[in-house]
Structures are given as structure tokens and as C-alpha cells.
Write a structure and sequence with these properties.
Length: 71
């Protein structure tokens, strides 16, 4: 689980991902119920922000001090 990145827009989804030991990226777009995203590892404006390069960059930051980093 620690090598997974969950992409989620709901507060309960974010909490579930964290409780499962995963890193969570919160998506702001469509958050019409003003759900809290503050527990997420990362936050993005929309799914359009996600590219392979973005994932690689974020993953490197998450695992900067770890030997676990692989792509």
C-alpha cells in the first residue's frame, strides 16, 4: 500500500486511502459539498493536472529520502 497513490475527491475516500497506508491525492474540482481535503498527501485542481511526468515528479518528492523509489 505504501507504493500506491490514491486519487480521490471525497473526504471519506481520502481518509480510507490514508487508513489503508496509501498516499492520497485530493482533487478539488467538483467539491461542491466543501469536503475537507487537508489530510491528503497532495492536492490538485482537477484530473486534467495529472500526467505521467506529474506522477513521476510527485513520487520522487514523496520518496526523496527513501530507497523504495522506482518507476
Amino acid at each position: 500500500p505504501s507504493e500506491c497513490l490514491v486519487i480521490e475527491d471525497s473526504e471519506f475516500g481520502i481518509i480510507s486511502g490514508i487508513k489503508a497506508g496509501m498516499h492520497v491525492c485530493a482533487v478539488k474540482a467538483g467539491n461542491i459539498f466543501n469536503q475537507k481535503h487537508n489530510k491528503a498527501t497532495l492536492t490538485i485542481k482537477s484530473l486534467n493536472s495529472i500526467t505521467i511526468n506529474w506522477i513521476e515528479e510527485q513520487w520522487k518528492e514523496i520518496y526523496l529520502d527513501s530507497n523504495q523509489f522506482t518507476i
